[in-house]
Amino acid sequence: MSELLLPEEAAALPEILAPPPAHSRVVGFALRYPAIAIGGALVALMMLLAIFAPWLGTVDPEALDPANMLIGPSAGHWFGTDMLGRDIYSRVLYGARVSLVVGFAVAALASAGGMAIGLVSGFVRPLDALLMRIMDGVMAIPAILLAIALMALTQGSVGNVIIAITISQVPQVARLVRGMVLGLREQPFVEAAIAAGTRTPRLIWRHIVPNTLAPVIVQATYVCASAMIIEAILDFIGAGTPPVVPSWGNIMAEGRALWQVKPFIVFFPAFFLSVTVLAVNLLGDGLRDALDPRLGARK
């Protein structure tokens, strides 16, 4: 090939064929999928704030300071103090830990449980009707009401909140996976694998699961965002984590009586919750566009 090119062109050929540098690929990906870039950056920022809360916080989030109650944002207390003199900035940072742990844990557990139920329902036809009627029954109850009912049977803790919200989110993933399995069963590559004598467990693991992962990952982001909102609602109405736990819902619940005179108590945790939920939803929208070839082709 180099014999057909001019010497200058042949000398520049390695540079033309060389792959672009890593930073160029990252910039190109971010420009192509801005939702992933923005959402991922915001989620990463919130995770860093939660991880480094002990070092970023100004004071102990549980430290009481009656002499400085209900002080507005200032140099000493960036987000002000609540009615017990606790620093709202430090409490908001620690509250990020609760919301992120609940969101990520519910997303992981609901995705795993829903995928298992969906796979069984799609392949084991005798169990399909039974499992789907159970899922329909769970979905018939609003997620927040089901979570409140489940929390009423247990003690308030982060673990129980995760379990209660997970139960209400599993049916969404299960129905999604079941629908995809029913469609994949009719595909030629699956029929060929069945004709070749492939056992059902191997068939599911090699051919079905890989083709359902992308939609489940996208659905998991929406489940994560929904779990954060439900957790905040549970804390706000006193049915979630104990009041001593610094969570965004608890901080807003403590400041609702003073909303008209001290709105900063509610504003800052509500702002961080809104930004986090928005970031997770943006990430989910971006992943949907990136993982769905049909949407990528439209662009």
- Helicity level: over 70%
CATH topology: MetI-like fold
Number of domains: 1
Series of H and E elements? HHHHHHHHHHHHH
Choose one word for the global shape.
flat
Q: Estimate the mean pLDDT confidence.
A: 85
Q: How big a fraction of the residues is strand?
A: under 5%
Number of helices: 13
CATH superfamily assignment?
MetI-like
CATH second-level architecture: Orthogonal Bundle
Report the count of strand segments. Answer: 0
Largest sheet: none
List the helices and strands and how they pair.
Blueprint: H1 7-17, H2 22-32, H3 34-51, H4 53-56, H5 88-123, H6 125-139, H7 143-152, H8 158-184, H9 188-195, H10 200-236, H11 248-255, H12 264-291, H13 293-298
Helix pairs in contact: 2-3, 3-5, 3-12, 5-6, 5-8, 5-10, 5-12, 6-8, 7-8, 8-10, 9-10, 10-11, 10-12, 11-12
Summarize the model shown.
The chain has helices at about 5-15, 20-30, 35-50, 55, 90-125, 125-140, 145-150, 160-185, 190-195, 200-235, 250-255, 265-290, 295-299. The protein has about 300 residues and is mainly alpha-helical. Helix 7 crosses helix 8 and helix 10 (about 200-235) runs antiparallel to helix 12.
What can you tell me about this protein's structure?
The chain is mostly helical. The protein has one domain (35-52, 78-292): MetI-like (MetI-like fold, Orthogonal Bundle). It is built from 13 helices and no strands. It has helices spanning 7-17, 22-32, 34-51, 53-56, 88-123, 125-139, 143-152, 158-184, 188-195, 200-236, 248-255, 264-291, 293-298. The longest helix is centred in the C-terminal third of the chain and has 37 residues, at 200-236. The radius of gyration is 25 Å and the shape is flat.
